[in-house]
Design brief:
4-stranded antiparallel β-sheet, alpha+beta, 4 strands, 131 residues
């Protein structure tokens, strides 16, 4: 998985994250966690748009290079933002889990009007992006 360096800053209930490698890609929230979750979604959307439009996806700069560049100002922190970009190609996977959990997954998927596979993929993506 590819990670981009995000620059987190804020206080109290106002937080923001910017990604130096992707100008204009920002996220905000009432907590650092919300701002990171928001920029993670923004990064995925921006990169999917770039790829779909035939634009080059910028390579991530290493955290050591970002720290050495002077990009961080006083009070800011570097955070790693995962890029979970769909490839547009589906593959079959065999998963093993408890039957009760599978029943709960099927019920939750049905309530949301999605397939088991779509539900599991969405849950995995959310878990990856929250890491």
């Amino acid at each position: 998985m590819t990670y981009y360096v995000g620059i987190l800053d804020g206080v109290d209930a106002v937080w923001g994250v910017r990604i130096p490698d992707v100008p204009g890609c920002v996220g905000a929230g009432a907590s650092p966690e919300q701002a990171i979750a928001d920029v993670t979604i923004a990064l995925r959307d921006v990169m999917a748009h770039k790829r779909g439009g035939g634009f080059e996806i910028p390579a991530p700069t290493s955290i050591s290079a970002i720290l050495a560049s002077g990009e961080l100002e006083a009070g800011e922190m570097a955070v790693m933002i995962p890029l979970a970009l769909d490839s547009g190609r589906t593959v079959r996977a065999n998963l093993t889990m408890d039957a009760g959990l599978l029943d709960a997954i099927d019920e939750a998927a049905t309530l949301r009007g999605v397939t088991r596979s779509a539900f599991i993929a969405s849950a995995a993506r959310e878990k990856i992006e929250a890491a």
